[in-house]
Every structure is written in structure tokens, then in C-alpha cells.
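Second attempt. The first submission of 2',5'-phosphodiesterase 12 had a stray character pasted in from the spreadsheet, which I only caught after the job came back as garbage. Lesson logged: always re-copy from the clean sequence file. Corrected sequence (609 aa) follows.
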Amino acid sequence: MWRLPGARAALRGVRTAVERHSRAEAATETGTGAMERAVVRCVPSEPKLSLSFALADGSHKNMQRDQSEPLGRVLSRIATNALKGHAKAAAAKKSRKNRPNASGGVACAGPGSEPAAACEPVVKLYYREEAVAEDVLNVDAWQDGAVLQIGDVKYKVERNPPAFTELQLPRYIMAGFPVCPKLSLEFGDPASSLFRWYKEAKPGAAEPEGGGPSSLSPSSSSPGWTETGVDERVYTPSNADIGLRLKLHCTPGNGQRFGPSRELESVCLVEAGPGTCTFDHRHLYTKKVTDDALIRTVSYNILADTYAQTEFSRTVLYPYCAPYALELDYRQNLIQKELTGYNADLICLQEVDRSVFTDSLVPALEAFGLEGVFRIKQHEGLATFYRKSKFSLLSQHDISFHEALESDPLHKELLEKLVLYPSAQERVLQRSSVLQVSVLQSRQDSSKKICVANTHLYWHPKGGYIRLIQMAVALAHIRHVSCDLYPGIPVIFCGDFNSTPSTGMYHFVINGNIPEDHEDWASNGEEERCNMSLAHFFKLKSACGEPAYTNYVGGFHGCLDYIFIDLNALEVEQVIPLPSHEEVTTHQALPSVSHPSDHIALVCDLKWK
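This time the job returned cleanly.
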């Protein structure tokens, strides 16, 4: 077990100390009195504790015991296991000695050799150099720093050391795109953990200077692997890595000590990237995180895998897109690189598969300082990420539109208007659209709070009146949060609103009202007409204006996505230019091998007034 003198020592210095410790530990492993490691996991919420250690015969034991069990029973079981292991080792040794040697004879035990002992080894647990009584309960007996003795072998007990509970590399790795391992820790955190990346040595490649790579573990210095020189959580392969596998060596830490290291190798080879992507030029404007006065905001429909991987998508919606470029493993590389390259403070995403959120977006964006929340719709949902160094999450106020409309008194007046049109009411209440609302607080100035809303309105071209109703519910709910619950806080409302600037929905948001004779009330014909006037009190503006399009597919292009901001409290500092028309149409339309979605991300820098 290693301890740091301070809570947050410089990790590079720590790494050197850990490497020295590891080399010293390896060098003395066979020496007299070398201390092995016994890892105990014991948490109050679980009835059992686990005990892991390696016996002298090389076998690894992982025991699950009741926390309320007396220590003596565990020690007795360990003694039995050790005896069995000793017997197996002795039998194997005898078998080896009786094998014919190279000259055809039989190698026999020499004079003075003794048969294996038939009695159980002495097993004791010591704490502060005193034996722990056998009637002490496990939960109290197995303390950090205790010493377990099995025969002549001593084990230092480490109770609840930092440990990886999940560690996984992506299944598809491309040169020029960041590799973000998915990891979960117990009793630790990624920022205090150590990472080191290796790549396969090319056949016939010369050894690095200094006689080969140094390593945190003996296995990493095998001739098949060389160091990349990267000791961060994220590694971006270069073209020189194409055709090679990667290996990651991780040591979990918590700022006080380190836990057992783990290694994992990629199951795939590094492949060549697609060349220039639609977002590469945009990243030139977002090389650094903004200062505290600004809020870089992104809104992006990333195209759910559940929609991209259908026969209809491949043959009708996106027939121009190479099939491999519609596969999730490929698109995730592009999405991760695009989002991390914006260095955003707020990211609102639509069409997010639950597995994409947990397995891809969270690991990637967490490595770049962002934390996220997710709201499922049906097959996919919404995700909002915020920069942890700038914001903390105060509360969440997500709703389903149809549930809120039916049950929340806030929308009683709107529902009373809608029930006069049964056909329209039925259609509205069938929709599964949701609204994600998060209240964030500035870490630099606790008096500054902000209401961040994110939604994806009903998609059908003839659903204009449904989108109007959904937006009315959304704005009433956001008003409740930003005025009643947190009086006076500004609003940022992002989303795919499936509405061009000429629609009633956009008119309603920007102008604050919609007349009952607007044509969108009959968007699906006279049978579903539902004339009503609506109003809201917000003063909202589209921060990125009205681009020619934010969605570009073979049969349609138009502006459907917006970042609406509260003009009373926020102003636009900078809008990151969208890709050029030439870039968007390089491969005919979107998505493509160089763009992961049929939508284009909106990116802008906002400033507090």
C-alpha cells in the first residue's frame, strides 16, 4: 500500500514513486519476510465482506464471508484452503521429480528431502502487532494495516483500497480520434488514478533507448509492447499506430493511496481515420475552455442508433451513406471527437441511446471535465452535460409532456382548451416527447444560477399543432422552475424543435404569443384543427440566429435546431460558424463518413449581462 504525504500531490511525482515502489516490491518478492497483499472489501450496506489473496502455491483465493461471523471461522477456512493448496503443490512437485530426465532416467528426491507436511499451517491475524481474538466479528477484525499470517507468509491487509469495478476499451479505434476508456471506481476517483498507454511493437522494431520501456508492472515491459509516452486517461492514436493494438495500464487511486493495478488490451487494431471531418475547422474556434464570464453552449441531435440501424434508414433515409459509417462503433468515435473538441461548458443532446450515454458519452466527456444527466423518452432520450469546474447541479425538474398536461395543475387552463378538440387531444396525449430541465449553480459565484432546458419535439411534418401544445407546456414548466422555485434565474433552452423559422412554434417562442387563427392549428387537416391563442412572458432569442439548415438529408434540409436564450440576463458573445455547404455536401448529404449525424451541432459562447 502506498500513501501520499498530501491529499493531492503532483501525479507525475507520485508516478515515479509508485514505479520505484513497484520495482522494489518485485525485486524483494522472493526475499525473506516479503509482505504480500490481502485485499478486503467491506461496506456497511452489504451483509458480506470479500477477502482476496494469493496462496504460496500461486492459487488466488476470493472469499465471501458474513460481516457478523467470528474471525476464527474464517481463519480456520483459510487454513483448510492453504493445506489443500500445499498438498496440490507437493503432488505436482513429486510428479515433476518422477518424470524421465533428458538422459532417459528418473529424477528422484535427493537425500534430506522431506514429505509434505500433513498438518494445517498456523493462520493468525495481527493488528498493531497483537493477535486479534478469534471471537471478534469480521467487520471489526479486518482493519486496514492488519497483518494476516499463513504459515511463514505474511500479508498486509488493505481494507477498501481504490479499485476498478469496470474497465473497458472501445471496440473501434481510429487514428486521430481520442480513445476514452469506460471505467468505474470504488473508493477512488479517476483524477487521482494513474494511467499509462502502450502500443504493440512493430515486428523487427528496434528497442527504445535505455534497454526497453519502463513500466508499472513486469508484464508491461514484455518485448511485444512499447510505451507511447502518454500517461493520461485519454490517448489519441497517430497514423503510426495504424495496424497495432493498444494496452492501458491503470492504477486506481484516491489522493491518499493506490489500489491494485489492472491492464487491458484492445480487441481491435487501430484503423485509419476518415480524413478531414466537418467539425475540424470549427474546432479552430474552440481550442480552449472559455473564461468564467462565458458559457460555451452546444445543442446537438446526435442521431440515435435505434434509428440509424434500420433497413429504412439504410435504403430510404440515408442511401448515400456508407453502411459502415452508420454503425454505432464508427459514429461514436466521431461524436466523441466532435464534442470534446468544442471545449463546451454546457452540452444538450437529443436522440441519445441509453447505452451510448453510459458507455460512450459519460466516459469521454467525464475525461474532459464534464458531468451529465440523462432522461429517457422511449427508445432514446435527452442528455445534458455541464463543466464541473464551472457548475454544480442543484436540481432536476424533468417532465413528460403528456403526463404533465394531464396531471399538473400548472397546465389546467391549456388542457381545458384542448379537451374541446377530442381528435387533437388524443393525438397530443399519444406523444412520448419529454423535457429535461436542470438548475445549475456557478462555482465561482453562488448567487448565479441558471435554468438549462433541453427537448426534442414531435417530428412529423404535419404535427405543427402538437409542437405548439408541447412548447406551451414546456414554457409554462420552465417558468415555474425559473420564477417560482428559483426566482429570477435566466434560461437557456436547447433542442431539436422540428420547426423551421416560418412555423407557428418558432413564432410563438420569439414573439411571446400565437393567435388562434394561425395556420398551424390545422397542420394535420380540418379534422384535428384546434384553434386557441397562447402566450408566454419570456423574452427569448435564437442565439445562433436562423441558419439555412441544421438538418441536411437527401430529401430535406432546413433549420430545426435552436439555442433559445433569456435576453434579460444573457447575450451572445460568439457563434461558432457552421460547416460550409461544400463540407456538408462532400459526401452528398448527412450523415456521412466525416459527419456522425443528420443534424449539425449549434455552438455559441454566451455571456452573463
